[in-house]
Amino acid sequence: MSTTSESYLVGLIGEGITASLSPAMHEAEAAHHGLHYLYRPIDLDVLARPAEDVGELLRAGRDLGFNAFNITHPCKQLVLAHLDEIAPVAAALQAVNTVLIHHGKFIGHNTDQTGFASGLAAVLPAAAKDVVVQVGTGGAGSAVASALLAAGTGTLHLVDVDASRATERGAALNTLFPDRRTVAATVEELPALLREADGVVNATPVGMHHYPGAPVDTDLLTGSQWVADVIYLPVETELITAARAAGCQVLDGGHMAVGQAADAFALITGIEPDRARMRAHFLQLLHAQQG
Fold this sequence. Notes:
The chain has helices at residues 22-32, 44-47, 54-63, 88-93, 111-123, 139-150, 163-176, 190-196, 238-245, 254-269, 275-290, and strands spanning 7-14, 36-43, 68-71, 85-86, 98-102, 105-109, 131-135, 155-159, 181-185, 199-202, 226-229, 249-251. By secondary structure, the chain is of the alpha/beta class. The protein has 2 domains: 8-109 and 255-290, Rossmann fold (3-Layer(aba) Sandwich); 113-251, NAD(P)-binding Rossmann-like Domain (Rossmann fold), CATH 3.40.50.720. The strands form 2 sheets. Strands 2-1-3-5-6-4 form a 6-stranded mixed beta sheet, sandwiched between helices. Strands 9-8-7-10-11-12 form a 6-stranded parallel beta sheet, with helices on both faces. The model has no long low-confidence stretch (mean pLDDT 93).
């Protein structure tokens, strides 16, 4: 373990994030590297501030000596107008979840995309990815879809209760990945699409504690598909549990949660974290929170 006199002050801006596991994950990994690292949630609900104040909060943080901020719902798009530079991936997705402060300038990144991609590569490296069905095309869904296409998915079917959002995201992705095929599909087409899919991804809130259930008919899972979820509270969603029971390979939402945190940590500190250690700590935190 190396030590450094450099200190880090990092924040998380979003709504309802007081219980976030990110502070504990970042601080514990920093301690292993001998870093002086403080990570604080800046909850808009607690402060009674609107999401539109994200730029004002960024500037105040810069003046108070913050090194970086993570940005979460509902500020990932709103923050764009307040940045001096945006990394190519974040610019393509039009969403930022990590802001570095260098020499007084705000530089935006998106580690949701890389976070999902790293989990996919680590857990399902050899799984067929030619045809994938993804349910949900919001902020997380945009990052996941981009990661899937970059990983080699040839045909990506996007399904959303808001059909216009799926159509809009599909058109944007076809421009970004002209050698791939992204198609908006209806909820009614979902059963037929699932039968032909190599993989199924949930990028909706369905499955969270407050939104119980599964986003697809789990009886259609045959074991021939792999199944991924972006939800990590709980990490064993109804979809993931049913997929395991059906014999499917699974990628739980904890991998994306840890992956985005690890990538943000690397951007902030310049140090590559121990991802397996962060995953183990994350699971400990989940167990303690749910116990």
